[in-house]
Amino acid sequence: MPIDATLPYDDQNIFAKILRGEIPSNKVYEDDHALAFYDINPQAPQHILVIPKGPYVSWDDFAAKATDAEIAGFVRAVGHVAREAGMVAPGYRLLANIGQDAHQEVPHLHVHVFAGRPLGPMLAR
Question: Which of residues 123 and 45 earns the better pLDDT score?
Answer without folding.
Answer: 45
